[in-house]
Amino acid sequence: LREPAEFQELRRNLHRLAEPSGREEQTAGLLVSLLRGFDPDELRTGLGGYGIAAVFAGPEEGPRVLIRAELDALPIPDPPALDHRSEDPDTAHKCGHDGHMAILAGLAGVLSKSRPAQGAAILLFQPAEETGQGAAAVLGDPDYGDLSPDMVFALHNLPGYPLGRVVVRSGPFASASVGLAVSLTGRSAHAAEPERGRSPALAVSQIIQAWSSVPQELVPLHVPSKVTVIHARVGGPAFGTTPGEGVVMATLRAHEDHVLHDLARHCAGLAEGIARAHGLEMSAGEVEPFPATVNDPSAVDHVRRAAGKAGLAVEEPDRPFGWSEDFGHFTARRPGALFGLGAGVDCPALHHPSYDFPDDLLVPGVRLLTELVREVVRSPVSPGSEGDAR
Ligand SMILES: [Zn+2]
Ligand SMILES: [Zn+2]
After folding, report:
1. Fewest C-beta atoms under 10 Å: which of 144, 157, 160, 216?
2. Are 389 and 332 spatial neighbours (Cβ–Cβ below 8 Å)?
3. Ligand 1 centroid to residue 293 C-alpha, Å
4. Is residue 322 scored above 70 in pLDDT?
5. How far is the CA of 272 from the centre of ligand 1 (A)?
6. Which of 292, 289, 336, 341 has its CA nearest to residue 134?
7. Residue 223 pLDDT > 70, yes or no?
8. CB-based contact 302:379 (threshold 8 Å)
9. How does 184-200 read in b/e, with b if 16+ C-beta sit within 10 Å?
10. Is 5 exposed, middle or buried (0-12, 13-18, 19+ CB in 10 A)?
11. How many A from CA of 382 to the centre of ligand 1?
12. Is 112:25 a contact under the CB 8 Å cutoff?
């Protein structure tokens, strides 16, 4: 795995195999057989599901650097005309994880020929990123336990930025988010006699209004936050029935975990008060929680220097991105950084049906990760990097 054409073929093969979050069996199988050929010092499989870690160690002790790619695809179909279209008509790599995997496999190819000067590189292929469950599952897996990286990194391709532009910043990089769902239960009745039932219809409309005004009323001007109602329903389409149950769901977002936590608590409290006023039972649940991904300044320095060595320009945005990444679970435990790699200004947006990872990004990606490993393993291990320092 050296030539651009080989990277491209691997990326397209991974694209054809696209599998949903948590069901990445064939994708993992392909990677395991490929990685075996690179003769890593250690190869762990079945991490948090279908996760894989390949360890390439240097001759001496030193910093251990972990680099993560994601295994999963999305429930969005490929356009029929795409020649390397996904074999599953309902699932395709619309976030470019096929490209991230090919880049990390390319790094494995480089490390198989030249091991790190010291320390170790841990190449982690993580399942189920899109549902926000994979990172926590890998970190909670006993087989992951003693990999003990000193520093953690992940890249994500970024449409809208020039091809190969490295996008990174210290502090919050990607936002925290969570789905909040409330279910309301009253009592259904004949539509002619709503007074004999207890409909949640008005409560649902009041919750939508109350939640939508929370960022306006609760959060200070300088603190970014959003509450986006994504779904609401009362009863079913039966004209003869006064409904007895209803649902409201929203996605909550903030740059910082504590702001998100306050938002969620406040929204649940508002819904509870409204439900009580209407004499309804309420249950609330949080789904797909993503912590904020917070970049460590020294990890960001490594990314800047690696970009310079790889001949890639660096751009540092003023603000964190509004989307979420479950890599925040890693940066919550170890110093590290998530950084963007520009996918081209005209590249369709991530999760858009016409998106396809640009193959021209594979070679710069491998070059960047190769330099990043070199940078990190030769830096002194900072005191306090033992254990869960952060
Ligand atoms: Zn995605
Ligand atoms: Zn992604």
Report:
1. 216
2. no
3. 15
4. yes
5. 32
6. 289
7. yes
8. yes
9. bebbbbeeeeeeebbbb
10. exposed
11. 32
12. no
**Structure confidence at residue 3 (pLDDT):** 77
Mean pLDDT for all residues in the chain: 95
Give DSSP secondary structure letters for 63-114.
-EEEEEEE---BS-PPPTT-TT--SSTT-B--SSHHHHHHHHHHHHHHHHHS
Distance, CA of 291 to CA of 242 (rounded, Å): 40
Please give the structure tokens belonging to residue 56. Answer: 């390439």
CA of 96 relative to ligand 1 center, distance in Å: 8
Q: How many CA within 13 A on the CB side of residue 374? A: 17
**Residue 384: band (very low, low, confident or very high) from pLDDT cuts 50, 70, 90:** very low
Residue matched to tokens 């789904």? 287
Q: What is the pLDDT confidence band of residue 382, given thresholds at 50, 70 and 90? A: low
Name the least confident of 19-23, 24-28, 93-97, 379-383.
Answer: 379-383
Collect residues with CB below 5 Å from ion ligand 1: 95
Structure letter (DSSP) for residue 380:
P
Centre of ligand 2 to C-alpha 343, Å, is 13
What is the distance between the alpha carbons of residues 313 and 35, in angstroms, rounded to a whole number?
Answer: 30
Ligand 1 centroid to residue 103 C-alpha, Å: 17
Residue the block writes with tokens 């005191």: 383
Mean pLDDT of 380-388: 52
Q: What is the pTM of this model?
A: 0.89
Is a pLDDT exceeding 80 seen at residue 136?
Answer: yes
Q: What is the pLDDT of residue 389?
A: 40
pLDDT at 380: 77
Q: Is 204 in contact with 274 (CB distance < 8 Å)?
A: no
Mean pLDDT of 58-68: 96
Q: 293 CA to middle of ligand 2, Å?
A: 13
CA-based R_g, the chain, Å: 23
Ligand nearest to the CA of 327: 2
Residue appearing with tokens 């170890």: 334
